[in-house]
Design a protein that fits this description.
Shape: globular
Helix content: over 70%
Order of helices and strands: HHHHHH
Protein name: Prepilin peptidase CpaA
GO molecular function, one term: aspartic-type endopeptidase activity
Radius of gyration: 16 Å
InterPro entries: Prepilin_IV_endopep_pep
Number of strands: 0
Number of helices: 6
GO cellular component, one term: membrane
Keywords: Membrane, Transmembrane, Transmembrane helix
Length: about 160
């Protein structure tokens, strides 16, 4: 992996609760809250200069801009929610550019697994553990925050374990 184990280890404990919160709120309300997006961005903005070389740190904001522009386009086309686009943009600077292909494969696996598990639980008695969750009644819509948050968590965990 391109991300260093030390960088992933520093980011993981701060990003983990935010990502779990995003997973929960998107499942329960089908919304990713702006304060969660801002908190994730703040983790990178405040901790990044201390754990990433400054030239690399500055370039990571390009990741944010590119993902935000793509997210806005996908949102305009109805393929993605606005909160999903903002969260993906806030998560983008955490990713080392050399890991892009790996991250896309990890996201695809997380998305497919999350979708399958969500739909399976939705149609079993297990959904009674959280009967008021909006995602059970959302029709064909899927809480993408589950896959986005899960992907960042898995990426940082794998980076901490297997990073350079």
């Amino acid at each position: 992996m391109g991300i260093s184990a030390s960088v992933a280890t520093w980011f993981l404990p701060l990003a983990l609760p935010i990502c779990l919160y995003v997973c929960y709120t998107d499942l329960s309300t089908m919304r990713i809250r702006n304060h969660a997006v801002i908190a994730l961005f703040a983790v990178f903005a405040l901790l990044g200069p201390f754990v990433i070389p400054l030239d690399v740190y500055a370039w990571r904001y390009v990741h944010l801009a590119v993902v935000l522009i793509a997210g806005i386009a996908l949102n305009a086309g109805g393929a993605l929610g606005a909160g999903d686009a903002k969260f993906a943009a806030a998560a983008a600077p955490f990713v080392h550019i050399a890991d892009l292909r790996f991250l896309l494969a990890l996201f695809a696996a997380t998305l497919l697994t999350g979708f399958a598990v969500h739909r399976a639980v939705k149609h079993t008695a297990l959904h009674r553990m959280a009967p008021d969750w909006e995602s059970w009644r959302s029709g064909s819509r899927f809480p993408m925050g589950l896959a986005l948050g899960g992907t960042l968590i898995l990426y940082l965990v794998m980076g901490a374990l297997y990073g350079r």
